Amino acid sequence: MKIEIVAYNIDSALKAQEGGADRIELCDSPGDGGTTPSHGTIEVIRQHLNIDVFVMIRPRGGDFHYNSYEYHAMKRDIFQCQKLSVDGVVFGILNPDGTIDKKRCRELIEKARPLKVTCHRAFDMTRDPFEALEDCIEVGFDRILTSGQQPKALQGADLIGELIKRAAGRIAIMPGSGVNEETVQDIVRKSGAREIHSAAVAYTASAMEYKNLAIAGMGSEEGSEFKLRTVDPQIVRNLRTLAEKA
């Protein structure tokens, strides 16, 4: 069983490794579902982790149909990731009709090699998951991260299982979204997945002694200024144990 943990900051990445994760998906902006982290963050994490580091290549939140400027930014970010010696990149591009943009995805995959390449949950926004599966295989993705086109992977576990069967080893299918200690065994049993993606999220209190209580947070989440997102290493360990028993 392979365990991938999404990390939104340096501390999360270190805690994921401490918990025995096989790799991390490194992102920024959890409120957007993940965007590309800074090159400085990527470099520091690469220097301090000996597990695989996959980096999200996503120039903004919102949909997965990008203009030419955004597409160029994705190419530049992949180039920087190669220079920083990460192990893989994660992206997905769609056409307006809900199909995989095979031309652009193939171009980015070719530019990314020899890095491994995962198609992220843009897959879940496609019009036909089985059509998208074949398109992902055709253009050369190594893996698909999916919730089975549902809000949470447990709800989509039957579709994930069907995707795994149809893939027949041609591409890895990894459940993600809502994969936690309560759901992981049911997801693995229903889908037959051999890889899982989880946040294993925890929060720590801010080290700030002075707090301006008139401002709870600089973003939209109430109180976020005074709590820091991280990963709980024990949750990572528990996920592996539970998944392997399923």
Low-pLDDT residue spans = none
Query: Strands across the major sheet, in which order?
Result: 7-6-5-4-3-2-1-8
Overall strand count? 10
Largest sheet geometry: 8 strands, parallel
Helix count, per DSSP? 8
Shape estimate: globular
Give, in order, the helices and strands. EHEHEHEHEHEHEHEEEH
Beta-strand content estimate: 15-25%
- Ends distance: 10 Å
Account of the 3D structure:
This protein has 246 residues and is an alpha/beta fold. 36% of the residues lie in helices and 18% in strands. The strands form two sheets. The protein has an eight-stranded parallel sheet with strand order 7-6-5-4-3-2-1-8. A two-stranded antiparallel ribbon has the order 9-10. Helix 6 (157-167) packs across helix 7 (184-191). The longest helix is centred in the N-terminal third of the chain and has 16 residues, at 68-83. The relative contact order is 0.15.
Summarize the model shown.
This protein is of the alpha/beta class and 246 residues long. The protein has helices at 10-18, 39-48, 68-83, 102-112, 129-139, 157-167, 184-191, 233-245, and strands at residues 2-7, 23-26, 52-56, 88-91, 116-119, 143-146, 172-175, 195-198, 201-205, 227-231.
Key features of this structure:
246 residues, eight-stranded parallel β-sheet, two-stranded antiparallel sheet, 8 helices, alpha/beta
